[in-house]
Amino acid sequence: MFKLSSQQIDEISYFAYISDKEIRSDLCRNYITSENDYTSNFTGALRRNINSHTKTGLQATSYLLEPRLERQIGCDAAIIICSKGESKIAVFEAKWPRLATKNYQWDHAQTSTGLSHFSDQLERQKQHKCILAVFEMFYCEFTPNTQPKYMQNEVSSCIWHDDAISFKNSRGIPDSIWDQQDLVSMLQSVNLNVEDILKQVCLCQAGTPISMSDPKDIAREFSLPANVLFIQADEIDQDGENSN
Predict the structure, then answer these.
(1) How far is it, in rounded angstroms, from Cα 235 to Cα 220?
(2) What is the pTM of this model?
(3) CB distance 237 to 56 below 8 Å
(4) Which of 11, 81, 111, 139 has the fewest C-beta atoms under 10 angstroms from its C-beta?
(5) Read out DSSP for 43-86?
(6) What is the C-alpha to C-alpha distance for residues 141 and 99, in angstroms, rounded to an integer?
(7) How far, in Å, are 69, 108, 128 from residue 124 at the CA level?
(8) Which residues contact 114 (CB under 8 A, 6 or more apart)?
(9) Could you read off the pLDDT of 66-84 as tens digits, one per residue?
(10) Which of left, alpha, beta for 213 (phi over 0: left; psi -120 to 50: alpha)?
């Protein structure tokens, strides 16, 4: 049965928060060039923070898989958390909507259909949604305390896939191209940070545990995106050794 200690849950969720905070700081200082750059830096920072600061035996490893898989599931990255042979999988689509730039067009039309690319991604994310914990992550270039009230102060603004789908379907034309006001309205309705998200994943309030522990097998089974962070959560016993 998948179960983490409260200390491990606190570590994973907190390290995710400070990692996102670090990379948002880089974005504000123009060290980040794109959504993919932010995403890879975020997962890399989370790996380093876990491995450098854990006191509960967490170990994190990065994998770079076939990039074609991202198109299948409509997400940019995955975080797999494994404990005692069972795993939880969180996947997210990353967007940098550049809300500091007036009327910036962060969504675009699909070449084949002319319909919204983001809406298409939301629909593709429905694959395995009963097992995967799926969320959207919106990066923010505002310095802390200067961002709009509907965005997180220090980190990115996140929304669960189900909430994004509900908002999409409430639009007059659900598959029309999203503009900045669409995103503003959605974030005003619900807005979490990545610490909130991963805490719910670890507590099994989102996603379903699977009896698999090999990250590459998991990636193939669920067509995960190219950027995968694997977190092995084995507790340290009283003698300082990892317990299985």
Answers:
(1) 27
(2) 0.93
(3) no
(4) 111
(5) HHHHHHHHHHH-SS-EEEEEEE--TTHHHHHT-SEEEEEEETTE
(6) 8
(7) 12, 16, 10
(8) none
(9) 755 445 788 999 999 999 9
(10) alpha
